[in-house]
Structure prediction request, 847 residues.
Amino acid sequence: MKTKKIDLKYAKLYLIKTNKFRSITIKVLLKDKLKKEDITRRNFLIDYLTLTSNKYKTRQALALKIQELYSLYINGYDTRLGNYLITKFSMSLLNPKYTEANMLEESIDLLREIIFNPHVKNNKFDSKCFEVVKNGILNEIKTIKENPKTYANIKMLENMDPNATYAYHGYGYIEDLEQINEKNLYEYYQNLLKTADVDIYVIGDFNQEEMIKIIKDKLNFQTLKKPKEDIYTYHDKVLSKPKIIIEKENNNQSKLSIGCKLKDLTEFERKYVINLYNMILGGGFNSKFMQIIREKNSLAYYINSSVLKADNILLIQSGISKENFKKVVSNIKKIMKDITKGDITEEELETVRTEYLSLLEEVNDNIDSILENYIATNLLNLDDFSVRKEKIKEVTVQDIINVSKKVHMDTIYLLEDGGNNNA
Amino acid sequence: MHKVNFNNLDQDLYSFTLKNNLKVYLMPFKDKKNYYAVLGTKYGSMDIDFTVNNQEITSPYGTAHFLEHKIFEQEDGIDPFKVFAKSGVNTNASTTFNNTRYYIWGVNDLEKNLNFLIDFIYSPYFTDNNVEKEKGIIKEEILMYEDDPAWKLDDTLRKNMFYNLPVKEKIAGTVESINTITKKDLKLAYQTFYHPSNMCLIIGGCFDPKKIEKLIKNHPKLNSFKEPINIQRKEYQEPDDVKEEFQIVYQNIKVPKIEFGIKINKDKFNIDDVKLNMYLGIILTSLFGSTSNFKEEVISNNLTTGFYEEKNNYANFITLNITAESDKADILIEKIKNTFKNIKVKKEELERIKKVWIASEIRMIDNVEITVDNIYSDLVLYDKVYDNRIELIKELNIKELNKIIKELDLSNQSLVMILPNESK
Prediction:
């Protein structure tokens, strides 16, 4: 596998050459500073751009073109990563070796069509398509509550700090949706193309010269340079006692979501120690949470933890019965406290270290994992794989104990069930 | 070992069958470092009634799923998750209507971990205590799915479509039914359905097939089963019509949802099961897929924000299902019904769908897990592996398709709607 970074002035182009896969994947990232009001219009925009185009004016016509190109995978979505809002266009095609020689150029041409040639009339987006997209976004916002697990996480993060970027969820907001029309969204689109920070990634088996030529030719942005924004959020204040918020919904199961702030992590801790700490605590089937709360006490079917790296937050989630709320929370607190007191063995550490290294190896067997990891490494300023493999070996039990003291429980949110357990 | 070139794509597939009838498939990949192994049994939530030692057994609903949880319990207290984790290997299991499978994936020590996978599945340990302990965990699992409208739709639709086939019940059973499950129920089910002759083992990824073959052929646990056994499952008399044609369910949701299903008896067709499944797949894709007129009409007129079509095999029945979210459900349902009334697939369309399917077969082989899972599904559904699906797809033709369209009886329909509690 060979990687190459090329500065196209208007964008950075990353080429990853590997002959292990039968497909080629291209991702175009438009990054900029997250603003709450941008989330809804950006979702709207990406859905609009991938629904139709100027050349393929109906969804059906575009779908037919996609099939003609040997069933291209093409989609677009937005993600929040720390203080960034990132729009990703993703396209994957069968390597032309298996189809026809001109498929590479034709496929990238369709990506160009989608990004640069939207369905526009009189400097406005098309009303009919606009309504279809609006209806879809409205529906997404309306149905957030239908997924109680997601909803509990959203509410927990909002309660942690309503003004922090991590409190903004990705589904969009009704009040922002109401402000969007065919004209101002088109203006927003034109502005985004000029101002976003653009990265283009390509992975697969291809001729480098040919690929650079096609990319320069088809994906030519006219962006201006912008000052860089720190992607990370840091916490300066922590609570001595966590907030508890309980809300009721008429569901069968209660959802627990707990947010912990990670304060003053060193670079080494942020890159390595916190990952292993999380794996020991609640990162998998073998974690302390699963062993004690599920297997020993039968209190839950699932209980896990995860790290929102860019937000410096550790998230804990579980589905429980409301009468067990106090028991589960006190178990969680005890498990976390015990680690700070040294309740962790060399064996536990070795197990998660092996798991970490194994996960790293597995990444190389999947084309999308390689690419997504490469992108995350760039965005979060992480070390590359060979460095990671060495550095992870340096983590000691004492490092885990030290980092565990920097994990501060902040918000405990319970979405309480209606008690109708009618299964 | 038997060797074939899978899908003619420069990818070998080896297979052999042990004396006890365990079917084994090995697919070594050249460019991978990982591996994925599945050991599965053709025992699922619908295997409720069976005969063992001349005794007719009726087990509680949810027994297969309960057993899946308890297989991980070992007499010496060893936790399989921990054993695998030492090599950085993951494990999990799942139960559906017609099978239960256990799988491991990772990059290190395949031989050691495969040995252990076989060891732990063939050394169950049930006690009154450990069975009792699991009830709290499974109860939470059942409640979790109860809050998911997609599961609710599916569970309700099956309950309404079938009179006797046990697929009418939920895979995990109910909180009441699992509370009645005992050590004895699990033992009986285990002895009957976890015999190697009812099971298969598939491994894909980075390994030497000769070494793995040797390991499997010499595994003491597998060698302790000498003869294949004959499993007697109850044959259910299931009518062709649906039990209930319509039901409304109220739930804590915001946007109404529907699932519409058509029940089809497979015995009426004189064609291979795999071909029948493919042709029905073609029909569904043509009527409701991304390039269909139906999709264009309902999306552009805002009759739905999203829907999907799927096909399910339950014993000798197939159901064709459409699931959608819509606040104009009445109009949408009429459109769905009308779309099924007039099925015409043009030759060009058939050819286009075939091209798309072939492309996805080629892509699939880049992924060890998906390839192994597809081999496993073939074994569960058809009792054999179709190692050249691309050839099968190429053989699909308009003449056979039209014959099936003509023979299709689409009159047995059922509909479930989930409406918000507020609209009660």
